[in-house]
Design brief:
cytoskeleton; 65% helix; mainly alpha; 308 residues; repeat; single chain; Regulator of microtubule dynamics protein 1
Amino acid sequence: MAGTVLIRCMSRTLLSAAHGAKGFRTRGTTRFYWTTFRRTAISLTSGRAAFLVGLPTLSCLGYEAYHRVQSSAVVHALEKEEVLEQADYLYSCAETEKLYQLLLQYKDSDEAEFLWRLARASRDMTLLPDMEDKQKKELMFEGFEYVKKALEKDEKCSAAHKWYAICLSDVGDYLGVKVKIGNAYIIRDHLEKAIELNPKDATSLHILGYWCFAFAELPWYQRKVAAVIFSSPPVSTYEEALQFFLKAEEVDPNFYSKNLLMLGKTYLSMKEKEKGLLFLTRAKEYPAHTLEDKEVHKEAVELLKKLV
């Protein structure tokens, strides 16, 4: 379980790009990839305002050249906004390959907003049917490099921290159990940072809850193996996982079928059968818009059969 601690929960969903003030909400196909609900907010107002104030004193000869540079910057800002809007629309429609090709044009950009989206798109490409293992691995590591660069460009970007955690878990699958477990600490750190920067991002809260759940349910013999590798391996509790799942539901009610399922499973693990039944029933009745929703429905039905 430790070897697959994080990303297995995120087939294609939540994702949620989210870290802004205003946005649109829609459903795509299964991705989490991190969230079936995508939020996007693009705010360049402060950047534009900078062009309206504080013009330095220039000679008559220099002003025209300066004006051209400023105009170019405005055009660039507008272009950025349009590309991001187009990218988020393609993501909401699950147009994975078109989105990847669009963002690939900006792989050398210094804009974190382009880079973390490209990292996400690279990862999404690996989940397409008939993807060869070699190409899948290349895309995983490619995506990780993009999101590393995104963080270098803007360490205060919540989405970059979230996707760094996701991509780090992905590449860890190719680097062995020791690296995978060691990365778990880093993954948690970046998820916590993502939440600190954007407390309203339900998907980051859900993922951190899943991280806690995975280590809480780690069998004793796997804990022993982990203890051999690390003097203090990652640990958590069902109570801690529950708090993150509940918080995710609080900031965005009913946003994700998997969160309802995990709430049900967590309550059952805590021997609170009545609450477990409640959330499993909600997961079962959740509208199945995506493949993952259907998988959640199936698991919820199977668990309910065992309990009633």
